[in-house]
Structures
1.
Amino acid sequence: MRLVRSASPAQGEVKSISGASANQTSGKVLIAYFSQTGNTDGFAKIIQDMSGADIFRIERKEPYSASSNAQVLYAEALTEQRENAVPDLKAYLEDAGLNIDDYDTILLGYCNWWASIPAPVRSFLMHYDMSGKTIVPFCSMGGGRFGQTISAVAKLCPSSTIKKGLDVTYASYDNDEISNWLKANGIITGN
Ligand SMILES: Cc1cc2nc3c(=O)[nH]c(=O)nc-3n(C[C@H](O)[C@H](O)[C@H](O)COP(=O)(O)O)c2cc1C
């Protein structure tokens, strides 16, 4: 199968990047992520280890048919994307004892699906008021970098500030790169 690989800004910045530089982030940070085959999950857990932030896994209420890159999964995801689907989630922040209002910064993780965000991420972003929050995206993908995902997030969260994201190919995480990215976004401090 040939995946669509659209050109994307190298670091996926699209709008109102208020100082993607080293301004220390104020307030609490939440890691919210979707991962179907485990790569973004590993990425999110490294970020949690480094930052100590709260973490929430976004999951579709009705599970997808495959937990590997199978044809059936490509088809399901494509159908959802074409329909702009907003599937129910298995759990919401409240179910985990978390409150979106407590967080100023959301580290938003997802896999690149058909160059866009998986539908459960759309569900998550539509469920909450993200106005005024800072969103820092991270993404696992097979070569298409952020694709159109940043603009998809920006459309769903027009009153949020989107900062510099970090993408990795599958599970090829680099701890130094992740640490430097977290520092550049003011999530952690250090030299
Ligand atoms: C339905 C589907 C669509 C995908 N579309 C793309 C794509 O457009 N571009 C890309 O680079 N990778 C694409 N991939 C590859 C995934 O982004 C990659 O396998 C990623 O590491 C999966 O992350 P996860 O293990 O957290 O689910 C796709 C994978 C699936 C299952």
2.
Amino acid sequence: MVGESGSGKSTLARAILRLEDADSGAAFWKGQDLLAMSPAALLGVRRQIQMVFQDPTQSLNPRMSVYQLISEGWDIHRLMPDRSERQVRVRQLLEQVGLSPEHASRYPHQFSGGQRQRIAIARALALEPELIICDEAVSALDVSIRAQVIALLDDLRERLGISFLFIAHDTGVVRDFADTVIVMKAGEIVERGPTEQIFSAPSHPYTQRLLAAALDPDPDVQAQRRLLATAQA
Ligand SMILES: Nc1ncnc2c1ncn2[C@@H]1O[C@H](COP(=O)(O)OP(=O)(O)O)[C@@H](O)[C@H]1O
Ligand SMILES: [Mg+2]
């Protein structure tokens, strides 16, 4: 999902998870409307859909160890009661996100921004989700770290078959990662389609402006986009 800052991307993600009330509409997950689900049914779905936020300093409780952060969801969902089993699983999850098993006893402040985001990803993976919503999850990271975290997400998608709703104001990041793109503007979806189509032939003027505003490494592509956007404006 792309769209400039303030276009309603986070609000849409939060509405899907019922963290925020939608005034109208529907959000279908496996044929069921999430917005009309009972609280009991919703608890089951909450496990299947996990979220990773932009700022891990805010989303990870600084007083909890990495072990506690990753295993917290098991308490909430009453999973994996066996302590030694949990310890093994936490170590596996840390390895899966490119951290060391020894990191389990440390606290969030002892990590870099990229590592903290890996902890947040491990925390989401602990519940074996089918969908992970990444809300600007790489936006605050330096370019090289960002590429590493995206590669990790890509790898998880390949190996574990997890789907992602990947939210970013940066169109380049979405282009590299997504199969399908939706474009948000002023709280509405204005365009949707396969990534290639959206980026090569955007049909909505807003999408054209959004893409023109982003720099393309290929100057010819960039010039073409600017021309198109100016012609449409
Ligand atoms: N569909 C909508 N209708 C009304 N207000 C909205 C809608 N979507 C978002 N907003 C409001 O717009 C502001 C920015 O939304 P937000 O979701 O944070 O944007 P983004 O994540 O794209 O930067 C918020 O104050 C939010 O409450
Ligand atoms: Mg947002």
3.
Amino acid sequence: MIERTTERREFQLVALDCPSCGAPIAAEGEDVVYYCTACRNGYRFDPEGRRLVAVEVAFVSLPHTSVDLYKPFWLVSARVSIEERLAAGGVFSGLMGFFLGDRSDSLAPVGEGVFAIPAFPGPLDAVTELTRRYTEALPELGERLGERLLGGCYDEADAHKMAHFALIASEVDKPDTLQDLDYDIEFGEMRLLGVPFVRKGETLADAIFDIRI
Ligand SMILES: [Zn+2]
């Protein structure tokens, strides 16, 4: 792993041995999340403490599908609330509606759930679509252990930003409702989910919704 030091703008190599079992951990240059295939523990790099911090990891189980690789998603617990809603009568059709459920008609709706957010870069529309589809599908997905998990280079702050963006972007067909929307997201615990991808020629697509990155 390569880490930029703040004072001298040099790069410093940090040895990546698993804190639990000592096995070397595979990583790509910009990764900030890691998975030890030897003991099946996951970690994120904590830049302040300059160490690996344990993160729970699971993988989406997809029997009968030939998976080429798994890519990391952040699973972020969140509490979505609407402080004020001036445009009365609007119905949320995207993620806002998913989080608020049948409480979306009440005066100050609050809903709890889990965002599933790609921890890797991609075209914004694909990342937004993946966030929406996997967040909504998460309760139905089976989980398993194992596999390799590489390429997670988005950290907690990036995931929180993406959650805000996806929440609003999935409601863009109701711009008049959103204009006066005063909402809040309270983020909680984070863990990692390995999502199966398949190669499609030069690109990769997720194995469930066929969204190309
Ligand atoms: Zn290990």
4.
Amino acid sequence: MDRRDFLKALSAGGAAAPTLLASTTENAKAATPINVVIVGGGMAGATAAKYLRYWGAKLKMDVRVTLVDKNAKYVSCILSNGVLTGERTLGSLTFGYDKLVTNYGANGALRFIASEVTKIDTTAKTVSLANGQTLGYTRLILAPGIDFDYSSIAISWADPTMTMQKALDALPHAWKAGPQTTVLQQQLAGMTNGNRLVLTIPRAPYRCPPGPYERACVIADWMKLKKPASKVIILDANPKIMAEPVNFGKAFAGIHKNYIEYYPNMQLQSVYIASAKSKTVTVSDTTDPANPVTRTVGAEVVNLIPPMMAGQVARNALANGGLTADKRWALIDERSYESSAFPGVHIIGDSISSKQPKAGHVGNQEAKVCADAILRLESGLKPFDAPVTNSACFTPITIQGPISAIPRCRSPRSSSAWTTCSTRSRIATT
Ligand SMILES: Cc1cc2nc3c(=O)[nH]c(=O)nc-3n(C[C@H](O)[C@H](O)[C@H](O)COP(=O)(O)OP(=O)(O)OC[C@H]3O[C@@H](n4cnc5c(N)ncnc54)[C@H](O)[C@@H]3O)c2cc1C
């Protein structure tokens, strides 16, 4: 792509056809180094690192990026449901940062540091790391993903040697791919044929709207072969299936009807661990909100997916005016992903408050819009006014048949709900 093509891309706009700057090389501001620190090397943060360097170099801007993640290797949640059923290994979903640094870090202009960010000073524009380093920045990108909030769930146990940490490990969310994915896989493998798995879904917004329903389907599919007398009980805090309701509704009522029971409006209240093989889940059934009913379900395995909020480092940094009223999500301008309250601080990925779904594909697009906006802002221009992001969702329903795929798209500036822009949906039928 030559300079003329870049200028064309600028007028086209959108994250899918990334926009670039017009006359940055002539701009005096662009001549000084732009130091960007990115906190979190996941789907969103790593993409921002790449595109700041890639587009910055094309535009002859001196952009220096420091990407910081508390882990030296990244484990992808995408496809991790396949680990539960033995179709995948966690190793196949684990990635390092060497290639990113080699391909986009000429002369040390992109470096990766494996350390936890412990403190951010938005006045001094510094980031403190657990390894003792302090990094200064021109602009900061926060992409720490999500944290879990167990505060509304009472968890208790019979075993006097149990601790809260052990109890949480015994009730794995497996919603950050890693050790908990392995725990849930082992619990499934060891499950008594005929016993139940309870899967709880928190109120939206949560990471990966179709993910819990997809998980129920792949586990049900696996049960047919490995634990044919067992069942998945879905206790959904939401009033309905939150993504692809037609596909999942058909799957629950059709191909998986003997293996999945789906219950909406079930607010999780407590879990009691009688033993490793016996747990009791209590919910408030709010189908009639005026008359909530307490219900209990026994299960051998409980996949407890708790309510979510932005990663702690973002909540700490933005606490003074940069968060939603419930203090869970970062408030940003979707043209630049810059904080509404902290100029120079951008937030991307699952941590933000947005009508866009919390998905890796969307985080990737947000990162590109953000990188484009930073290059523009540092050149004295305004961010592109109408960026468009989109999300494609590939949802396995059964390995015995095809998969469904529903790409969705919307403009972040539109107030309407997500709409299906094209459908290539296929669902297996028995
Ligand atoms: C089962 C499952 C299936 C999914 N399937 C899909 C799918 O098919 N398609 C799709 O698009 N999305 C999917 N998703 C969602 C997707 O994984 C997330 O939306 C995506 O990972 C969000 O990207 P992120 O960069 O915001 O956060 P993450 O990818 O979680 O990255 C955050 C990074 O920040 C780091 N970090 C956090 N705090 C600090 C700190 N203080 N210091 C340093 N580093 C820190 C973490 O170590 C982590 O590496 C799925 C999710 C799940 C759970």
